[in-house]
Backbone:
């Protein structure tokens, strides 16, 4: 029987590179430009979705050259599993959202159930406008809402199990220097 660490090392060795570090950095730069053009005069509150959005936020936020506030929330459907389950709110938003422009920043838009629930919650709490930004959008027809897209997307990626740049493989490899697909997915 292999340990979780051995499994993670094997997964990384066997993985296919979907986007190398340069491609991801270019996508984050494009996201920064797009978000800046749209939100620079809106006094936005940016909610980083933990844990996946952490890596993206760390690289994206310094490129946004306008005043903003940053907070975090934690809602997940995966934990360390490979398939989603029910939404689990671990940390709910705490700021006063009434009349605010809010940007939800996450690593991936897969089926979108988590992102849709977060957006609905923020709207119900009084946000004037809620935007979404993701590093990657997984291309498939199983979205929570037909035609669902984030307002800002860095890369469109194949429908495979991915890790790197915030996305994890059973809790590991959020720090991988690129976006990788697990072999056989």
Residues:
């Amino acid at each position: 029987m292999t340990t979780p660490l051995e499994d993670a090392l094997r997964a990384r060795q066997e993985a296919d590179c979907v986007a190398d570090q340069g491609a991801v950095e270019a996508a984050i730069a494009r996201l920064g430009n797009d978000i800046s053009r749209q939100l620079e005069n809106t006094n936005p509150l940016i909610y980083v979705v933990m844990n996946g959005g952490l890596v993206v936020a760390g690289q994206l936020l310094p490129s946004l050259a306008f005043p903003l506030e940053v907070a975090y929330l934690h809602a997940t459907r995966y934990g360390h599993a490979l398939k989603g389950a029910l939404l689990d709110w671990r940390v709910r938003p705490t700021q006063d959202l009434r009349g605010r422009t809010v940007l939800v920043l996450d690593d991936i838009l897969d089926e979108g159930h988590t992102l849709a629930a977060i957006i609905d919650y923020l709207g119900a709490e009084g946000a004037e406008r809620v935007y979404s930004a993701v590093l990657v959008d997984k291309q498939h027809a199983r979205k929570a809402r037909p035609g669902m897209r984030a307002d800002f997307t860095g890369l469109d990626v194949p429908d495979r199990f991915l890790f790197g740049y915030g996305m994890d493989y059973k809790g590991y490899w959020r720090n991988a220097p690129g976006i990788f697909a697990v072999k056989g997915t």
Remarks:
- The domain at 4-181 is CATH 3.40.50.2020 (Rossmann fold).
- The helical segments are 4-14, 21-39, 53-60, 113-124.
- The chain has four helices and nine strands.
- Residues 79-85 have pLDDT under 50 and may be disordered.
